[in-house]
């Protein structure tokens, strides 16, 4: 799995987890969902993605989006 796919999978899992927490625990967890979305949006424009840097340090092979 490349960093690109790992970042997308991680973001998707975190969105689903935050939506489940918003449903069963507190609607305030929707703020976490919004944070994830904003982070994905800024990564699309700037190329800076903290999750990609973490996956790179963990040894996940490089893709082409987050070099």
Topology:
Elements: H1 3-24, H2 30-46, H3 50-57
Compact summary:
This protein is mostly helical and 67 residues long.
Ranges where pLDDT stays below 50 over 5 or more residues in a row are none
Helix content: over 70%
SSE string, helix = H, strand = E?
Answer: HHH
List the domain count as a whole number. Answer: 1
Task: Give the overall shape.
Answer: elongated
Give the helix/strand class. Answer: mainly alpha
Mean pLDDT rating: 94
Helix count from the secondary structure assignment = 3
Distance between the termini: 15 Å
Tell me how many strands there are: 0
Alpha carbon gyration radius: 13 Å
Strand content: under 5%
Largest sheet: none
Describe the structure.
9% of the residues are buried. The chain has one domain (3-57). With 67 residues, it is an all-alpha fold. The longest helix is centred in the first third of the chain and has 22 residues, at 3-24. Helix 1 runs antiparallel to helix 2 (30-46) and helix 1 packs across helix 3 (50-57). It has 3 helices and no strands. The chain has helices at 3-24, 30-46, 50-57. The protein starts with a helix and ends in a 10-residue tail after the last helix. Helix content is 70%, strand content 0%. The model has no long low-confidence stretch (mean pLDDT 94).
């Amino acid at each position: 799995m490349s960093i690109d796919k790992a970042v997308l999978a991680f973001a998707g899992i975190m969105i689903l987890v935050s939506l489940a927490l918003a449903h069963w625990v507190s609607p305030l967890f929707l703020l976490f969902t919004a944070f994830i979305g904003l982070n994905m949006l800024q990564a699309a424009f700037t190329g800076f993605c903290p999750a990609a840097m973490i996956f790179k340090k963990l040894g996940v092979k490089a893709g082409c989006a987050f070099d």
